[in-house]
Amino acid sequence: MKSEISATDAARRFSEVVNRVRYRNETFVVKRGGEAVCEIVPVPTTAFTGRELAELLRSLPHPDKDYLGAVEQHLRKQPKAEKSKWPR
Question: Which residues share a beta bridge with 36?
């Protein structure tokens, strides 16, 4: 649903407007001097399935050997983690 709101009202009720956009999926047309200047709309959600993520990762180029060597070199320089003090 699109609602019209003045810039002044949007500023005064900003938290409420954001909540309505987020939780009710509403859209607001903000007007100044009777003229539309912007819209406040919900951000479209993107969801990945595990399969889609795996396909995306497979489609990426493989890192070259120099990159992998640099990563291994930096990993060797990392200090060892302390043993956990929590009982098991």
Answer: 31
